[in-house]
DNA sequence: AGAGGTACCTGGCAGC
DNA sequence: TGCTGCCAGGTACCTC
C-alpha cells in the first residue's frame, strides 16, 4: 500500500488532528508487528503531548515532549482518524486515544509495519541513521546520484529502490520514474550517463510530487486519514499496465522481474 | 564492499 | 465449492 506519497498523504491527513493533543491511552491488541511493540509503550506514551507529526523516508514521526514515536506502515498498514467509537476489526491492531475523544487507529493485515519509541526528540533512531537523502530535497541531485552510481553493477531500478541511495522510491514509482526518464530498468546503474541521471532525478521528483498532489495511488484499499482514496492511479503510465499501449508510442507495455519485484516498462521508449 | 536471496504475514485471485 | 500456489505497495538481515 504505502510508498512515500501515501505516507506523506497520511501524515497530512492525521497531523491536524494530533498536533497539540495529549495522549490519553494506547491500546495494543496485537503486538506482533515486524518488531514486537514494546510492552512499556502504552505507559511511555500516556500523558505525552504531541508536538508535531513529521516524516523521514516512509517513517511517520510523532514528536512528543519526551521522545518520538516512529510508525512504519510496511506493505499493508494504514492509519485512520476516528471521531466516534467504532468496533475494531480483525486487523485493527493499535488505537491511540487522544484527550479530545479522537482515536488514531492502525490497521495492518500483513503486520510488516512497526511502532517504535525513541527517547530522543530529534528522532535519531538507528533505523533512520543510514538512510539516503529525501527525494524531494536538494540533497538528492544529479551530482550525488551519478557519483554514487559509479562502479555499481546492479540494475538501475534496484539502485533507485535502495534506501541507502535515496529514500521513498518504492516499486510503483521506480517503474514510473524510469519510464519518464526513458531508462530501461535492467540497465546497470554504473553504465548510465550523467545527463541521463539528471533526467532520472527530475523524473523521480516529478512523479513523487504529482502523486502527493493527487493523494497517493490507491491500488487496493489505501486511503488517507479520512478514508478518501488517492487518485494517482489514473496517472500510471506503465505500472500494472502489462500489454496495454504505451501512452507515448503505443508499443505494448512489458512486464519483467528485477530482484523479485514486478517491473513494468516500454521496450520502445526505454533503453 | 557489493550483490542477491530470505524472511516476516495475511488475503485475494487464478487455475485446477 | 475447495484446494494449491502465487502474487502483493517494504526492508532488515543473511550469505556468498
Low-confidence stretches: none
- Gyration radius from CA atoms, angstroms: 20 Å
**Succession of helices and strands:** HEHEEEEEEEHHHHHEE
Major pleated sheet: 4 strands, antiparallel
| Percent of residues in beta strands | 15-25%
Give the N-terminus to C-terminus distance in angstroms: 29 Å
Helix content: 25-40%
**What's the mean pLDDT score?**
94
Structure summarized in a few sentences:
With 271 residues, the chain is of the alpha+beta class. Helices cover 25% and strands 21% of the residues.
Task: Explain the layout of strands and helices.
Blueprint: H1 4-18, E1 23-28, H2 41-45, E2 50-56, E3 59-64, E4 68-72, E5 78-82, E6 92-98, E7 103-107, E8 114-118, H3 126-129, H4 142-149, H5 156-161, H6 171-181, H7 194-213, E9 254-258, E10 261-265
Antiparallel strand pairs: 1-6, 2-3, 3-4, 4-8, 5-7, 6-7, 9-10
Helix pairs in contact: 1-7, 4-7, 6-7
This protein binds a DNA duplex (16 and 16 nucleotides) through residues 1-3, 6, 32-34, 58, 72-76, 91, 108-113, 127, 151-154, 158, 161, 163, 170-173, 217, 219-220, 222, 259-260, 262.
Descriptive keywords:
25% helix; 10 strands; four-stranded antiparallel sheet; 7 helices; alpha+beta; 271 residues
